[in-house]
Design brief:
about 325 residues; alpha/beta; Rossmann fold; seven-stranded parallel beta sheet; about 40% helix; globular
Length: about 325
């Protein structure tokens, strides 16, 4: 597939940055979508096989120009928890996904990879995450718009919106069996930043890496399912999906996760790998509300082809090294 043109939505995102790097390394040409306010920064990136196109609203915009000449579409763009209203979060997730796949299908493009989340496989309240069970690729959570508004919680809203979006995606594909769709469902994603991407300008831009950043600040992150995966493996999963043959609708759905790794385990490892970094006893540690469940990644290994995931200890080391350098950069720019 080398040489083909791949459209990556939300190209300034954490996952997209690594995805673009890996695609370019394999010889693909890449076109990334971004909002107007981010295009200027992207134009500083120079690569002969990389270009950018302005798309301000994936839920509404005409994507004809973005899709011109494209062979494959990887839909990564998604709202972050707490960054928008409930209505906007749901609309961006659901209508954004549907608008993309409708226009992709209309343009005659058949291969689509979509970035989902482990949250689509269980109740968005995360209760099953602490029941000591095994959760698989074909498990599904349940929610509704009414439930999202009733909960009024940013993380519930995010996971529920992504769940509704993925269900809408597969419902659409049922009537379009010629479409070759894969959904990648990662655990909590951490890791170093892509070398081509603009670096975070402040703490508010850290995304999921704000959790390990909290360790450096002397506090434990909030209690969450201890499912972690390195950003480089998440990008790799998307790339591997490009080589999969067409399969029955709904079967190309893959959980991607390196294992269970708690913040207490991360802190214990950092005390050994980075002596003196965590200068004080961390505050705010809480026990998990029940035995941690596990994400079954056997199909990601057997079908998708991820033979081995990056060790969470290496992942935490690499992200902390990047965070230390970021702190220096911010201090020098102040």
């Amino acid at each position: 597939m080398s040489g083909k043109l791949v459209l990556v939505t939300g190209v300034t995102g954490f996952v997209a940055g690594h995805l673009v790097e890996q695609l370019l390394q394999l010889g693909f040409r890449v076109r990334g979508t971004a909002r107007a306010q981010k295009i200027a920064a992207l134009k500083k990136i120079s690569h002969p096989s990389l270009e950018f196109v302005e798309v301000n609203d994936l839920a509404k915009d005409d994507l004809t120009r973005a899709l011109h000449g494209v062979d494959i579409v990887i839909h990564v763009a998604a709202p972050l928890p707490g960054k928008a209203s409930i209505e906007e979060t749901i609309n961006t997730a659901v209508e954004g996904t549907l608008n993309v796949v409708r226009q992709v299908e209309k343009a005659g493009i058949t291969k689509i990879v979509v970035t989902g989340t482990y949250g689509s496989t269980l109740d968005p309240s995360m209760g099953p995450a602490f029941n000591g069970i095994t959760i698989g690729d074909f498990d599904w959570g349940k929610t509704s718009k009414e439930e999202i508004y009733a909960k009024n919680d940013p993380f519930y809203t995010y996971f529920a919106a992504k769940l509704l979006a993925e269900k809408a995606l597969w419902e659409f594909v049922k009537s379009k069996p010629h479409l070759d769709v894969t959904s990648i469902l990662p655990g909590f994603v951490f890791g170093p930043w892509a070398k081509l991407s603009p670096l975070p300008a402040s703490e508010k831009d850290l995304g999921t890496n704000s959790f390990p950043y909290m360790l450096l600040a002397g506090v434990y992150p909030p209690v969450s399912p201890p499912w972690v995966v390195d950003i480089r493996d998440v990008a790799k999963a998307h790339v591997l999906a490009l080589d999969l043959p067409h399969m029955e609708v709904g079967t190309k759905r893959f959980l991607v996760n390196a294992g269970n790794f708690t913040w207490e385990e991360a802190a214990e490892h950092l005390r050994k790998s980075h002596p003196g970094l965590l200068k004080h006893s961390l505050e705010g540690a809480k026990d998990l509300p029940g035995p941690a469940s596990y994400l079954d990644t056997s199909r990601a290994k057997e079908v998708l082809g991820i033979k081995e995931f990056i060790d969470p200890k290496k992942m935490i080391d690499d992200v902390v090294d990047d965070l230390i350098e970021l702190q220096k950069r911010w201090a020098s720019a102040a």
